[in-house]
From TrEMBL, chain A:
EC number annotated for this UniProt entry: 1.12.99.6
Species of provenance: Shewanella benthica KT99
Role: This enzyme recycles the H(2) produced by nitrogenase to increase the production of ATP and to protect nitrogenase against inhibition or damage by O(2) under carbon- or phosphate-limited conditions.
Protein name, entry field: Uptake hydrogenase large subunit
Catalysis performed (reactions): H2 + A = AH2
From TrEMBL, chain B:
Catalytic activity, as annotated: H2 + A = AH2
Protein name, as recorded: hydrogenase (acceptor)
Subcellular location: Cell envelope
GO cellular component: [Ni-Fe] hydrogenase complex; cell envelope; ferredoxin hydrogenase complex; membrane
Description of how the protein assembles with itself and partners: Heterodimer of a large and a small subunit.
Annotated [4Fe-4S] cluster 2 binding sites: 255, 258, 283, 289
Family: Belongs to the [NiFe]/[NiFeSe] hydrogenase small subunit family.
Cofactor(s) the protein requires to work: [4Fe-4S] cluster; [3Fe-4S] cluster
Organism of provenance: Shewanella benthica KT99
Top-level class of the enzyme under EC nomenclature: oxidoreductase
């Protein structure tokens, strides 16, 4: 007998997400659905407005990756108009992208995703002296992971837990067997979770130097970047560089070390060994190195065939709404795309929590459209970026992969 | 109007009352500050700057300090509606010393979807428990607009599939005070821009209680924390303007405190992004700066540890703390001209007067004369 489990809200993300799964008698997931339960209608609102305002409006899609949609909105208009922007503006946009990249990865790793694999309560029983030794295995100069640092963190959290009022940590899944770290390892990452709160502020300041503020910077316009005065000021550039050094230091001496530690602890998980589900990857050019030269290459990998990597053909991108709460006759290229809401609601059924409204998996069940490339789902994001550049044999990347490997598998 | 002495006594009584309540967080603020390397001296400086920001006389800084210590007595429920999480992100990027954010984790944060460990059924339990256990005492902060069209079907949250509209109404009932954080929750924000396909509304339009509106997309963390401190200190709302924004934060026009104001007065304008005027820091009015119509403390407080603000970065203000700014202030790169704003002629002196309920602050004649002080085409 299969049973249905409903998880809503999925927390520590931007937006409103609901996941439902069906598990068999061995508690193995046989089917899964994910649904965005919010529609805001930004596409509809954009119609009829000045193209110059598009960037600022689409920026409000997400305040976490606050710069990405802004830049894409602006660059879409530049692309449509055939506008070429000055090389300095490209560099400045890349510096802002770099700032966001550093900020967002740290926040995602520690503050958003972290609590799924760091058991805070387990950290309380760690021996700080042993933990400090452990930290030295992953880097020779750990940050915030000396015996004294770790003891202070442990005492702080102990005091908090003793009150019985756990606030944001209440009613969670502490002690579950999917947490793989030893108490000492949990304590190290917990200490970095707190340290990262400070470091992400510095990363946000990097974005604000050329963006005016973060979140939601306000210095891009169709045709370039407005913060010329900051760009022309050596003091401002130096300020950025200094903050960049602080964040980089944390990435090397904490974040990277924690990833290596996590890879060893979680490397045998079925979700890791089972490989990726969707074997198609897509990435776009990013981080200007010189005119027309980028750190990350654009490209498409289908069916995991790295050797067969091709250039992106934008004509092959379509959005499908078969299972989304919109009306349309078949998949549409974004140029001809429509956004006509067609809400069909939930279906009542038995779940592990009793009768609940649930997703209609055979019909429509989400506010997110399904983007497809040549009819196939694609993975985009960090892994896709790395794979596409790797497939295109970017020298810097093949080199750093080679030096990372022995550490991960030791 | 309260005299300051009466207000001080009221704050004192309120804090005594809070002292009777149990601390929810065990650990004192002092010991937390120690772990964060924040000295007593930093704390006193911080209290003084919050006092000044709240437009209170300096002696109130002892009250601010006490209120910060007692923040752990106040349960906070933070709900997300139709939004982008930018307001939550603003909060975590706080000032130095990191006291603003510390106060925030010092407060008893019962529910906040971006930060909490629990998901799904367990998250819903946390919310229900907090609303029941602290009925009538909790502070409700809302981020995001409430979709109302189609019975609110454009947003559902939780395993039970309740609409955002149902959840807000329910949570508002037991709240001691409601703060709309950001322009979305305050006035509907970007999703309420024409044609507002989801019928998105500000919280105050769907509940029948007073709501404090913190305009801004997002508002700075100082405006969020300052409002919190005021509530903790006095248990009542601060003085509000006609849009229910706290006057201490939204009482002055961006234009009046702008560092480029001298350029405006001299009629020196950037004509095109990237021109010599842009490099020399000329006024951005002609490229659509909405500072003359916008009430906020951006030029004085700036963002991200005072790093910058849009005008410093060479882009005009877009009016993001004003109601309906997505429609009323667009196009963002063009001056408003003589169109209507909040039902008033945008270039008229009356805009400021009506919003603040104070003496007229001149935009109109002034802006027009200074623009034409220089010929339009060079
Ligand atoms: S007010 Fe702005 S920053 Fe805040 S949730 Fe709305 S769109 Fe995001
Ligand atoms: S119009 Fe804008 S840039 Fe010019 S002085 Fe006023 S606020 Fe500053």
């Amino acid at each position: 007998m299969s049973k249905r489990v409903v998880i809503d809200p999925i927390t520590r993300i931007e937006g409103h997400l609901r996941v439902e799964v069906e598990v068999d008698e061995n508690n193995v997931i046989t089917k899964a659905w994910s649904s965005s339960t919010l529609w805001r209608g930004i596409e509809v609102i954009l119609k009829g407005r000045s193209p110059m305002d598009v960037g600022l409006i689409v920026q409000r899609i997400c305040g976490v990756c606050t710069y990405s949609h802004y830049r894409c909105g602006i660059e879409a208009v530049e692309n449509a108009l055939g506008t070429k922007i000055p090389l300095n503006a490209k560099f400045l946009r890349s510096l802002m992208q770099t700032s966001l990249y550093m900020h967002d990865h740290i926040v995602h790793f520690y503050h958003l995703h972290g609590l799924d694999w760091v058991d805070i309560i387990s950290a309380l029983s760690a021996d700080p002296a042993v933990a400090a030794q452990e930290a030295l295995q992953y880097t020779d100069k750990p940050i915030a992971a000396g015996e004294g640092d770790l003891r202070a963190v442990q005492e702080r959290i102990k005091g908090f837990v003793a009150t019985g009022k756990l606030g944001p940590f209440a009613n969670a899944y502490w002690g579950n067997s999917t947490y793989k770290f030893t108490p000492e390892q949990n304590l190290i990452v917990l200490s970095h979770y707190l340290k990262a709160l400070e470091v992400q502020r510095v990363a946000a300041e990097m974005l604000a130097i050329f963006g005016g503020k973060s979140p939601h910077p306000q210095s891009l316009v169709v045709g370039g970047v407005t913060s010329v005065r900051d760009m022309l000021s050596p003091a401002r550039l130096q300020e950025w560089k200094q903050k960049h050094a602080i964040v980089t230091d944390f990435i090397h001496r904490a974040y990277k070390a924690d990833i290596i530690m996590a890879a060893a602890a979680f490397g045998n998980e079925p979700s890791v060994l089972g490989g990726v589900n969707v074997m198609n990857f897509m990435a776009t050019n990013d981080f200007v190195l010189a005119d027309g030269e980028y750190m990350f290459d654009q490209g498409v990998i289908m069916n995991g065939d790295l050797a067969g990597v091709t250039d992106i053909d934008p004509d092959l991108i379509k959005e499908d709404v078969t299972h989304a709460w919109y009306k349309a006759d078949g998949a549409q290229h974004p140029y001809d795309g429509t956004t006509i809401p067609d809400y069909t609601g939930f279906v009542e059924r038995d779940t592990v929590y009793g009768k609940l409204p649930t997703l209609d998996g055979d019909g429509k069940y989400s506010w997110v459209k399904s983007p497809r490339y040549d009819g196939e789902p694609m993975e985009v994001g960090p892994l896709a970026c790395l794979l596409v550049s790797y497939a295109k044999a970017r020298l810097w990347l093949t080199r750093s992969m080679a030096c990372l490997k022995p550490q991960v598998y030791r | 109007m309260d005299t300051h002495a009466a207000l001080y006594r009221q704050g004192q009584a309120r804090l005594d009352m809070l002292r009777q309540l149990n601390s929810r967080d065990g650990q004192s603020l002092t010991s937390k500050m120690k772990q964060h390397d924040i000295s007593r001296r930093d704390f006193i400086k911080w209290s003084a700057s919050v006092t000044a920001m709240l437009a209170l006389p300096l002696p109130f800084s002892t009250l601010v300090a006490q209120a910060a210590e007692l923040a752990d007595r106040v349960p906070l429920i933070w709900l997300h509606m139709a939004e982008c999480t930018g307001c939550s992100e603003s909060l975590i990027r706080t000032d130095t010393p990191n006291l603003d954010s510390l106060i925030f984790d010092h407060i008893s944060l019962e529910y906040h979807e971006t930060l909490m460990a629990a998901s799904g059924w367990q998250a819903e339990e946390n919310l229900e428990h907090a609303m029941e256990a602290y009925k009538g005492q909790y502070l409700l902060a809302v981020e995001g607009a409430v979709p109302t069209a189609n019975n609110g079907a454009y947003l559902t949250i939780g395993c039970k599939g309740h609409t955002g509209l149902e959840i807000i109404k329910h949570a508002a009932e037991g709240a001691a005070a409601i703060i709309s954080v950001g322009t979305c929750a305050a006035f509907g924000g970007v999703q309420a821009a024409s044609p507002n396909p989801t019928g998105a509304k500000g919280v105050h339009e769907v509940v029948d209680k007073t709501v404090i509106n913190l305009g801004g997309c997002p508002p700075s963390e100082k405006n969020i924390v300052g409002t919190l401190m005021y509530f903790i200190m006095f248990g009542k709302l601060p003085a509000l303007d006609m849009f229910n924004r706290p006057k201490w934060a939204y009482g002055a026009r961006v234009h009046d405190n702008c560092e480029r104001r001298g350029r405006f007065d001299a009629g020196e304008f950037v004509e095109e992004f990237g021109d010599q005027g842009a490099k020399d820091g000329y006024c951005l009015y002609k490229l659509g700066c909405k500072g003359p119509y916008t009430y906020n403390n951006c030029p004085t407080e700036r963002f991200n540890h005072h790093t910058s603000w849009p005008v410093l970065a060479g882009h005009g203000c877009m009016g993001c703390s004003e109601p309906n700014f997505w429609d009323d202030m667009a196009d963002f790169e063009k001056p408003l001209g003589r169109q209507l704003l909040h039902g008033f002629d945008a270039t008229a002196d009356t805009v400021g007067a009506v919003i603040l309920g104070a003496t007229a602050v001149g935009i109109g004649a002034h802006a027009v004369t200074s623009i034409f002080a220089k010929p339009l085409e060079d």
